[in-house]
Design brief:
Layout (H helix, E strand, L loop, with lengths): L2 H20 L3 H14 L4 H16 L5 H19 L3 H14 L4 H13 L3 H14 L4 H13 L3 H14 L4 H13 L3 H8 L5 H13 L3 H14 L4 H14 L16 E4 L7 H13 L3 E3 L6 E7 L3 H4 L5 H17 L6 H4 L5 E16 L9 E8 L11 E4 L14 E4 L5 E6 L3 E4 L8 E10 L1
Antiparallel strand pairs: 1-8, 2-3, 3-4, 4-10, 5-8, 5-10, 6-7, 6-9
Helix pairs in contact: 1-2, 1-3, 2-3, 4-5, 4-6, 5-6, 6-7, 7-8, 8-9, 8-10, 9-10, 10-11, 11-12, 12-13, 12-14
The chain binds fe (ii) ion.
Length: about 450
């Protein structure tokens, strides 16, 4: 199923479920939501409707009709704030609600979810635990509690909570995947493989290969990699790890997406596209000063630095017009430069795609930890501010075939370090691991990063 088909299916399903709920047909709506969850386990709209469904089935406890209206309105407000990522406001609203009534499970749900999203896992653990004292039939609460416990490294308790969630809902895919990830974190690769095996999504299939490699089952790994390459030839995560593993176990890499990614790094100059680089850089930096950004945002690799949220191309189309032109033009050159190369990166170049861009500003000690861009195809960085007199490669971008702390059992992995200059643009396959060497000096390093993403 293509991404576009998937989106249509999800939209249609959600519409149908909402309509059924509004007509009181909760059981039928529940079946549709369950089927949507199986297709896309962490879809926020599905989760939201499931929670609404639960509340419609009478699992809320609110006393008094007038108070219920006020209470319900405030709870909706808290939910809306959480959806808008205003987590502190959502938590404050929930605290006010708890002063009125401490026995409403849904308040603890909203509060716990906001705290979890805000990175306050200890508070979220308390909230989800309180919820479960009121209602121990919430598989979602057990799952989220497990995720928070995992974040604070209470792995045994986390496993128990995921198991509780699965007892309540044996087909709860998100809990199963979380359990698989927990086992990877705990180094229990055999158990992780058992949990991840039923899943067909790109990430789980690639993780399964990683488990087989870590377990030393190279023959099983090779067979599974060949099979996956035939059904998901453009699985970015699998393409990333197989470049490394094939070298380690001296086997041919069955993934032809980009087996030699270090050969596909292109360094370009912004001056090719703009009349005056200094004016462009100055204008971009002053615009980006005004863009909302977060210090060390959750689930991102930016450390000791700020990163913008959302897609800058969508949020600021006018201000980003020049940057978009540079990205599009450089991508055309990139494709032309490698057009004769026999690999999926070039031969399967997506017909339909979009662009995603974000801004990163690092200060002293700042870096990007090693990562890939699994939803991208080609990724790039425009350098607006770099280190003038770098010490020991600080601020450099380091590319490597090695990542995810996979064990090195044979040859040292291939790598390349580039010290970028202000006004340069570097493009590379999204499957190539990269990181930034931490800044030693008290200086700023500012970039616009972007992905070309297949649709
Ligand atoms: Fe990156």
């Amino acid at each position: 199923m293509t991404k576009s088909d998937l989106n249509t299916k999800m939209r249609t399903g959600l519409k149908k479920a909402t309509s059924l709920m509004s007509r009181g047909k909760l059981a039928e709506a529940g079946l549709i939501l369950d089927s949507l969850e199986r297709i896309c386990p962490s879809h926020p709209a599905v989760k939201y409707q499931q929670e609404k469904l639960l509340s419609g089935m009478g699992k809320r406890k609110v006393a008094g009709a007038k108070q219920a209206r006020d209470f319900s309105g405030m709870l909706s407000l808290a939910h809306s704030m959480r959806q808008q990522e205003k987590f502190c406001e959502a938590i404050e609203a929930c605290e006010e609600l708890l002063k009125i009534d401490e026995n409403v499970a849904e308040v603890f749900w909203e509060k716990g979810c906001a705290e979890q999203a805000n990175g306050d896992y200890e508070s979220a653990i308390l909230s989800f635990s309180s919820l479960l004292k009121l209602d121990d039939s919430s598989a979602s609460a057990f799952n989220n509690l497990g995720a928070c416990l995992q974040q604070v490294k209470r792995l045994d308790e986390s496993e128990l909570m995921y198991r509780n969630a699965l007892k309540l809902r044996p087909d709860y895919f998100e809990a199963k995947k979380n359990l698989g990830n927990l086992y990877i974190e705990a180094g229990s690769y055999h158990q992780a493989a058992v949990e991840l095996r039923p899943f067909g999504d790109a990430r789980s299939r690639a993780q399964l290969l990683e488990c087989q490699y870590r377990l030393g089952r190279f023959s099983d790994y090779q067979t599974a990699a060949e099979e996956l390459a035939s059904i998901q030839p453009d699985n970015i995560r699998a393409a990333a790890i197989t470049s490394f593993i094939s070298q380690q176990i001296s086997k041919e890499n069955p993934f032809r997406f980009c087996p030699d990614p270090l050969d596909f790094i292109r360094v370009g100059e912004i001056e090719t596209y703009v009349k005056d680089v200094e004016i462009f850089v100055g204008r971009s930096l002053s615009f980006l000063e005004e863009v909302d950004s977060k210090w060390e945002p959750m689930n991102k690799t930016t450390k000791s630095g700020y990163q913008s949220e959302g897609n800058l191309f969508d949020l600021y189309p006018a201000q980003m017009q020049e940057v978009r032109h540079i990205c599009e033009s450089e991508l055309i050159r990139y494709r032309e430069e490698y057009i004769s190369r026999n690999c999926g990166l070039i031969s399967h170049w997506p017909e339909k795609f979009d662009f995603n861009a974000w801004f990163v500003r690092l200060g002293k000690g700042g870096c990007q930890e090693s990562h890939i861009h699994p939803s991208g195809w080609v990724s790039g960085v425009i350098y607006l501010q770099t280190v003038l007199n770098p010490e020991a490669n600080e601020g450099a971008i380091q590319f490597s075939t090695h990542g995810f702390d996979l064990p090195i059992i044979n040859q040292l992995p291939q790598s390349l370090t580039l010290q970028p200059e202000r006004g340069q643009i570097i493009l590379f396959p999204s499957s190539l691991f990269h990181k930034t060497v931490p800044l030693r000096q008290d200086v700023e390093r500012s970039v616009i990063a972007f992905d070309l993403r297949p649709l």
